[in-house]
Design goal:
By secondary structure, this protein is mostly helical. The chain has 2 domains: about 60 residues, Orthogonal Bundle (Arc Repressor Mutant, subunit A); about 140 residues, GntR ligand-binding domain-like (Four Helix Bundle (Hemerythrin (Met), subunit A), Up-down Bundle). It contains 10 helices and 3 strands, in the order αβααββααααααα. The protein has a 3-stranded antiparallel sheet. Helix 4 crosses helix 6, helix 4 packs antiparallel against helix 9 and helix 5 runs antiparallel to helix 8. It is elongated. The termini are far apart.
């Protein structure tokens, strides 16, 4: 009698290179606009050039890498319009999720998330802070009853992660963001949707003001 035993899944070298380089970009290990040399990256990852090239080509399709002439590669660099568009779409999707969550907010993981934002994050722990931040916003999207919403959120997910890096590294921003998150969680726990919407919009607009100070001044007429 033959027993079917499924072999454990093992990622191939292309997948390994793809996941590692993507992680480098989304954690800021590779900076926006940084040039990537195939041979240097292959040496750094202890891989041949072929899987690294395939990985970079795939990441280019996800708008994380720019392909330059003569097979040169560069990490994407978001301009002001990119940042503004991503944050606008993020606010639309997340406020819609909160507004339509209904009974989904009753099971929102308030206690678990509150613990994450009650702790201080020293500057060198900005990556841990970003993971907590992303977790909260993914939970908001997950609370919505609209099954297509997550697909739309996934379209801007990489951009959100990239924006989060310079935002979190601004002095004092993580502590301020913690307070904003806690106010949002308090409103969700009370079932006060209107207050939760106000806190969520305020939080995202704070990121926009931080990342786009000149644009904010132009819109409000403020001067230095």
């Amino acid at each position: 009698m033959t027993v079917n035993r499924e072999k454990p899944y093992r990622p191939n070298l292309n997948e390994i290179a793809y996941q590692e380089i993507k992680n480098m970009i989304l954690t800021g290990e590779l900076a926006q606009g940084e040039r990537i040399l195939l041979d240097k990256m292959a040496e750094r990852m202890n891989l041949s050039i072929t899987p690294v090239r395939e990985a970079l080509n795939k990441l280019a399709q996800e708008d994380l890498i720019l392909m330059k002439p003569r097979t040169s590669y560069e990490v994407v660099q978001l301009d002001d319009d990119d940042i503004n568009d991503i944050l606008d779409i993020r606010e639309l999707l997340e406020t819609f999720a909160l507004r339509t969550a209904g009974s989904g907010l009753k099971t929102f993981p308030v206690t678990e998330l509150r613990e994450l934002f009650r702790r201080p994050y020293p500057p060198d722990q900005y990556r841990q802070f970003i993971e907590a931040d992303i977790g909260l916003h993914e939970a908001i999207i997950g609370a919505a009853k609209n099954r297509k919403l997550k697909k739309l959120f996934d379209m801007i997910y990489n951009g959100i992660r990239i924006i989060a890096i310079p935002s979190a590294r601004v002095e004092g921003r993580m502590a301020e963001s913690n307070r904003e998150h806690l106010a949002l969680l308090d409103a969700i726990e009370r079932g006060d949707v209107e207050e939760a919407l106000r806190q969520l919009s305020h939080h995202i607009q704070q990121v926009k003001r931080l990342m786009l100070p000149n644009r904010g001044q132009a819109l409000t007429g403020e001067k230095n």
